[in-house]
Amino acid sequence: MRPTLLHPHPLSRRDFINFMGVAATVSSVDSLSAQATASAPKVPLGLDAHSVRAMGWKARQLIDYAAEQKLDAVLFNTLKPFESLDSAHLRSLRETAAARGLRINVGVGSVAEGSTVFSKENGNAETLLALGVRVATDLGSPVVNCRIGALPDRSTPGGIEARTAELLKVLKAVRSRALDAGVKFAVENHAGDLRSEELLQLIQAAGTDVAGVMLDPGNAVWAMEDPMRQIDLLGRHVLCTSVRDWMVWESPEGATFQWTAIGEGLMDVPAFLGHMTKLCPGVPLHLEIISNSPRPIPFLRDDHWQVYPNLRASGIVDFLALCRRGRPLELVKPPAGTAAKTFEQQHQRAEFERSVATLRRLGAGLQKI
Prior knowledge:
Number of domains: 1
Largest sheet: 8 strands, parallel
Number of strands: 11
Structural class: alpha/beta
Radius of gyration: 20 Å
Helix content: 25-40%
Order of helices and strands: HHEHEHEHEHEHEHHEEEHEEHHH
Oligomer: single chain
Shape: globular
Strand order of the largest sheet: 7-6-5-4-3-2-1-10
Low-confidence stretches: 1-38
CATH architecture: Alpha-Beta Barrel
C-alpha cells in the first residue's frame, strides 16, 4: 500500500493567493540570491513547453510566452504543439522565434517500438526519427530529442536491455541523415527508464559524434540517483536539458519523491549552474516544472529490484543520502470554488515564473531585463 504522506486539507484562499503570487519573494530565493555574484555563470534559460501544459497552447503561443518572459530558448519535446509539420509552417515558426531572440529545440518522444509508450501515429520508429531530423532542420534545432519511454519498460520482455537495443538500432539507421543535416540525437533519461550509466553506454555505442544526452535531473531521482552525480557523469555529453528541482524523503516502502519549482527542493542551484557552465557551456537550461505530484519509489520491496538486475544496494548510496536530507511536501489543492483547470493553469505558470526569477537572481539568462 502506498504510504500517505500528504497533507489532507487544501490551502486556505488567502494562502493560495499568496502561494500563486508570481512576484512574491520566497525565503529560499533570498538565501540563494546572496550567493549570486557579478561573475555568476551565464546559462541560457529556456521554456520546456510541458511546464505550462494546462494552457493548451500551440507552438506559436508558446513562442510568444517564452518571448514575454525574455527567455533564450524554447523546447518542444514532442511534435504535438505543431499545428502542421509542413516545412513552410515550421520555417515560419523558426523566423518568428529568431526575431524574438529565441532558439528552438525539438524532440519526438519514444523511438523504441517495444516501449509501453511508443506511438505509431507517425509510422514506425525509424520513420519517426527521420521525421524528427527533418523537423529539426526546418526549425533550426541542433538536436532531435528521443528516448525509450518510461519505468514500466524495464519490465517488458527482454527488459531494458531489449528496449535499449531497439533504440540503438534506430539511431544507427538514421545516423547518416542526422550527420548530413548537422543534427544530433539527444537521448533522454525519461520517467525512470534509464540510469545514467546505461544512458552513457547507449550514446557511446551510437557514437558521440552523432549522439549525446538530453539531461533530465528530475528523472534521475526516479531511477534512484542523485541528480548532482548524474550531471557529473553525463555533463560533457549534454546537448539539451529539461530541468526542475526535486525533493525526496524516506517512506515505509522506501522513498517518495516530488518535483518542485527551482530553489524549493534539494537542488544545489548555484552548483548545478556551475556544472553546466563548465561541462556543457551554451546548452540552454529548459525549465520543465512539474510539481504537486508525489510518486513512490518502493525500493524496500523485493519486486522493485527485479527490473535492475545489475544494480546493487551500493549503487544507490548517494540516493539514500539524498532521502535522509529530504522532507515530505504538502499537496496543494485548489480552494473551494476554484475550477481544477483554472487552478492548474495558475499553478503551473506561477511555478514556472518563480523558477525563472530564482535563476535570474543567480545570474542565469542571456537577455537583458
